[in-house]
Amino acid sequence: MRYGFxxxxxxxxxxxxxxxxxxxxxxxxxxxxxxAEAIGYDLTLIAELNxxxxxxxxxxxxxxxxxxAALAAVTEKLELMVAVRPNxxxxxxxxxxxxxxxxxxxxxxxxxxxxxxxxDEARQYGLQFDQHDDRYARTTEWLQVVDGLWTEDRFxxxxxxxxxxxxxxxxxxxxxxTVYAGxxxxxxxxxxxxxCDAYVMHGDAPEAITPKIADMTARRQKAGGKPMTFxxxxx
Length: 235
Known about the structure:
Layout lengths: L3 E3 L19 H13 L4 E4 L17 H11 L4 E6 L6 H15 L3 E5 L5 H6 L7 H20 L3 E4 L4 E5 L10 E4 L4 H10 L2 E4 L4 H18 L5 E4 L3
Parallel strand pairs: 1-2, 2-3, 3-4, 4-7, 7-8, 8-9
Antiparallel strand pairs: 5-6
């Protein structure tokens, strides 16, 4: 079993406590992450939202991917599980940038793939926001493109949402980053069983978690591929 923590990119995680003493700043998260690594934490999850969903939309929120790149250079052991929302990132360009961050970290990058839920945020930033099942269809194509760029010398793809033509991604990651994802819908579970490495769940009692693990294990066996791993948020 491995233990991680949620990076306080929003200045904390409690909506009912205005000031948790966790400044949404590079200096704070650097010191926190280095300390967590020193005392034995295994990973950190860096959430990706451009608006602050915890302390209020007018409050600061750190950018996930530039923060991850900086942390990659000032840590040595911690896995950096960074959230990524496919409708906010063109997949071929993302594959290139993420491969470089993985190189900087020495092979410690992981993805937490999130099919976006916040329509108003996408509207504010002028980005596409799909309906539920369309979001998972987009994410499926997105994962195929990223995986292709990371594993093949040249990669061509033509789908409903994305297209590449003999694209090159070099240098590639030190090792292909683990892809985590969560979701309770049929569309989400089908996608995760087919294209992801790990299933993440909200914290719950063992009797609620056990059938979810059994279900996803069976789905994975049917889809093929190596056994799935599992993660759970705990409070």
